[in-house]
Amino acid sequence: MEIFKYKYDELFNPVLQALHRLGGSGKNSEIEEQVITILGLSDAEVEDIHRGNTSKLSYRSAWARNYLKRLRNVSTCFGHCLKR
């Protein structure tokens, strides 16, 4: 049974909110702590295991951060290319 129901793309906004609260950057653990607070996650949701000892929160928020980094790189490049 799945307890943590958020998919990686549903974590984009909470991750961005967490980064904003942290001043624009933070360690993965700091970002996850903020996401837990923002979403009001229960202990069971936080501890729901993906595989091995990796939680679904850690796994899916890592994907969310990865996609957001890629999007930032694309938008930065796109903006830079438009200025030429």
Question: What are the key terms here?
Answer:
84 residues, mainly alpha, two-stranded antiparallel sheet, 65% helix, 6% strand, disordered C terminus
Can you put this structure into words, describing what you see?
It is a single chain. The chain is mainly alpha-helical. It has one domain (8-83). Helix content is 65%, strand content 6%. It is built from 4 helices and 2 strands. It has helices spanning 12-21, 28-39, 43-47, 56-83; strands at 49-51, 54-55. Strands 1-2 form a two-stranded antiparallel sheet. A hairpin with a 2-residue loop joins strand 1 and strand 2. Helix 1 (12-21) crosses helix 2. The longest helix is centred in the last third of the chain and has 28 residues, at 56-83. The radius of gyration is 15 Å and the shape is globular.
Compact summary:
By secondary structure, the protein is mainly α.
Distance between the termini: 53 Å
Question: What does the oligomeric state look like here?
Answer: single chain
Number of helical runs?
A: 4
**Count of individual beta strands:** 2
Helix content: 55-70%
Strand order of the largest sheet: 1-2
**Measured on Cα atoms, how large is the radius of gyration?**
15 Å
Mean pLDDT score: 87
Q: Which descriptor suits the 3D outline?
A: globular
Low-pLDDT windows of residues: 80-84
Any idea how many domains? 1
SS content category: mainly alpha
**Topology order in helix (H) and strand (E) letters:** HHHEEH
Strand content: 5-15%
Largest sheet: 2 strands, antiparallel
